[in-house]
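pasting input
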Amino acid sequence: MAYRSSDKTRQKKDAKRTAMMQAAVQVFAESGYHAATVRDIVKASDVAIGTFYFYFPDKETLFVHLYEETADFLLQTIDQAIRSRSELAQQFSRGIQAYVNIAVFEPAVVRLLLVGGVGAIPSLEIKRSNFRERMVRLWQRPLDQAIDTGTIPNQNGRRVAEAFAGAFDEVILQLLAMPEPDMEAAAVVQELTLFSLRAVAYKGTPP
Amino acid sequence: MAYRSSDKTRQKKDAKRTAMMQAAVQVFAESGYHAATVRDIVKASDVAIGTFYFYFPDKETLFVHLYEETADFLLQTIDQAIRSRSELAQQFSRGIQAYVNIAVFEPAVVRLLLVGGVGAIPSLEIKRSNFRERMVRLWQRPLDQAIDTGTIPNQNGRRVAEAFAGAFDEVILQLLAMPEPDMEAAAVVQELTLFSLRAVAYKGTPP
Amino acid sequence: MAYRSSDKTRQKKDAKRTAMMQAAVQVFAESGYHAATVRDIVKASDVAIGTFYFYFPDKETLFVHLYEETADFLLQTIDQAIRSRSELAQQFSRGIQAYVNIAVFEPAVVRLLLVGGVGAIPSLEIKRSNFRERMVRLWQRPLDQAIDTGTIPNQNGRRVAEAFAGAFDEVILQLLAMPEPDMEAAAVVQELTLFSLRAVAYKGTPP
Amino acid sequence: MAYRSSDKTRQKKDAKRTAMMQAAVQVFAESGYHAATVRDIVKASDVAIGTFYFYFPDKETLFVHLYEETADFLLQTIDQAIRSRSELAQQFSRGIQAYVNIAVFEPAVVRLLLVGGVGAIPSLEIKRSNFRERMVRLWQRPLDQAIDTGTIPNQNGRRVAEAFAGAFDEVILQLLAMPEPDMEAAAVVQELTLFSLRAVAYKGTPP
DNA sequence: CATGAATGAGGGTTCATTCAT
DNA sequence: AATGAATGAACCCTCATTCAT
């Protein structure tokens, strides 16, 4: 009694937790795991340091959680974009589009995944390689399908997918390093799409 | 006599210094900048901690210096390999070969550059983007030449070079994650070469 | 009506307060002052942390209060048992019996007094030495009387009482450390009684 | 070379370690484990906080080590005093004498053992009960011998030894609470000896 | 030159306490 | 009355760096 709990209170608490997590993503993305201090995060969230430990068990757990959540979000978003089409050229076009979109609108998400977690923690290394693996598989699936259906000539789908994963990451990171990433986004999407189609010796008409 | 003695001393000093730097490269590559402690480095060098500060001003300076030196070594080695040939296909083949070679024989060098310096230090960020920039230019030069001479169709040489840089890095990192990288090295070189030639719509005969 | 209502309220409030204090005694006895957290106490009382501070000003004050209250209870119970008899042997027998009873039925009370408050807080030190002092005096009174009446030979009543206080505490603590203290309780009472009577060179017939 | 190590340096280091441990004993004895902070200890040793961690792995380990070392010292000293004689009265006289001596000359040692470690740490609880156990056995040995040889009547040697252990502790703690413990020391020894001999119904001539 | 004892700023975390609801 | 989210002082500990020997 008293305190009509589980209604507005709970919502507010969840909102705050979410806000703190977003702030944490920014800070981790900016400085990387080690350089980012809990004090930095609470400063960015405008709360006291004790509040951090009210919402999260510790810095490491939060980071790993954020990393996984963010990885899932990125991978699922791209995956859905790819799966929304059945033609290879469309699949790449959409997938790259989705990736670039996230990079432009949520640059911290991409930075967290690509640079924030590097060399962070032993316990994260496995998550990281897991993320890389899933990223590679993301691009490998449409490739293998296209090889099966004869849309593209036979090739090492796995290795090509690795190359794509690395290529897209680098180009997107370079894009984010520019003063106005959104200006270039469309061009990047198109060029990467054509690049990838050429790289797999795709003979159909590009999108 | 005197100059010889001082010469020897100098040599000895340089030898120790070099040994410590090599140990440091290993440690930094292994753990990343923050997780690597000065104590780890001196332990690996089998000297006292004071000795470290006799040879190097501080951890950060050493790291930055190592990063630059290592970057120079990698870039120059690849660059020379590329410049040793004049035909695009050969240039890529040799360049990739050189990169893979370094990765297989000096994995710490590659790890230091690709992961050890990520999110390490603000003062390193500029060196890192510098390194990325030079890496991109490395591949862009032969591309632009080939475009100029009509060997390959017109395309955004810069962007394609970025994609290559990222692609090669990722594939090489994946190679290093395998149990016996040297077993796969030759295949990786060939596949990456073909990949890159297809990606630029090269019509000549592959090497 | 009004006074009854407020009466009920008062009763309810007191009941809750009492319940919390009992829970606190258990927690303090279990972990000691420092290791016991306010959160432990409210968890054991099944109330919110704010409620704790509604009933008690702070952790330290509660602990001191609990300590004093518990000390009073223990000392008075033993004292009454002693005063219920006029013969030395009976007095010791009854006093020891009372002490052992409390230990068996309210072990937390004994633990709180004997170990929970040790090295807890500067402000408690005086209460602790006070408790020890009263405990000593408890046993000293019948001793001095017996010396006065010639029941036992002359001796340093104070020092002997100190020895008894310490002896009883230790034996009782050892008893509480056993798996089933109540099994041994009767034997402990008898042995301690005989022990103490011998120690004061009592020549009458033991109880 | 340089630095004639393992001679003066090592001695100095050991001396400092010892000095810090003594300071730590004082601080732990004064405040108890939890209330004593590492900063208190280094302040008492007049060194920086890092120096503490150069010599000791952490607070807990040091405390446990100190506790064990101190316990061994106390128990062995008393044990030797007891074993130096073969007659019960002499054994108790000497043992008590040894205990009181330590209390007077090294009060912190006694305080650390009797109050400093109470409710400190789960990992210490076993050491504590171990210490109590050994303390009891210390007094039980001469008792059981005397019972065997018929020097004293049959009785529960274990329980009596517990009582003695508690009695001596309490009297000694009370002694240490006095303004000038050494003034009373001799009287305490004599009285406790007589007390214990009476308590076991010893009929020979007291020392 | 080389050593390693010594330093202390700063990081992660706990927990008694407050206060708006 | 009761709640529990929020606070921040203070704790333990690490590690880059210095300096007397």
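fyi The mean pLDDT of chain B is 93.
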